[in-house]
Amino acid sequence: MILRCPQCKHAMKYQAMNGNLEDKRKTCVYCNRSFSVKSNILAKQPKSNNAYKGFKSAL
Ligand SMILES: [Zn+2]
Predict the structure, then answer these.
(1) pLDDT score, position 11
(2) How close is the Cα of 14 to the center of ligand 1, in Å?
(3) Distance 54 CA to ligand 1 centre (A)
(4) Cα 1 to the chain's mean position, in Å?
(5) Cβ–Cβ under 8 Å, residues 4 and 16
(6) 25 CA distance to ligand 1 centroid (A)?
(7) What span, in angstroms and rounded, lies between the C-alpha atoms of 29 and 5?
(8) Dist. CA 19 → ligand 1 center (Å)
(9) Distance from Cα 7 to the centre of ligand 1, integer Å
(10) Under DSSP, is residue 54 helix (H, G, I), strand (E, B) or coil?
């Protein structure tokens, strides 16, 4: 999926492991800020139409 850093707004790829993102954090490769993965998802790779619709309606 694609994450967006809340500080510098850069987008970056993130390889999700085993589904649960609740406690996952990522360190921004641009500004080194650590942020919550779940709260900063920019786009999910659309594996299915349903997942993609769910993302769009959440915006
Ligand atoms: Zn950043």
Answers:
(1) 96
(2) 14
(3) 26
(4) 6
(5) no
(6) 13
(7) 9
(8) 23
(9) 5
(10) helix
Q: Determine the Cα–Cα distance for residues 53 and 49; give it in Å rounded to an integer.
A: 6
Per-residue pLDDT, 58: 52
pLDDT tens digits, one per residue of 16-59: 877 788 889 999 999 999 999 999 999 987 665 555 555 555 55
Tokens at 53, concatenated: 């619709």
Q: How far is the CA of 34 from the centre of ligand 1 (A)?
A: 8
Domain boundaries, the chain: 2-57
Residue predicted with more confidence, 52 or 14: 14
4: pLDDT strictly greater than 80: yes
In this prediction the pTM is 0.69
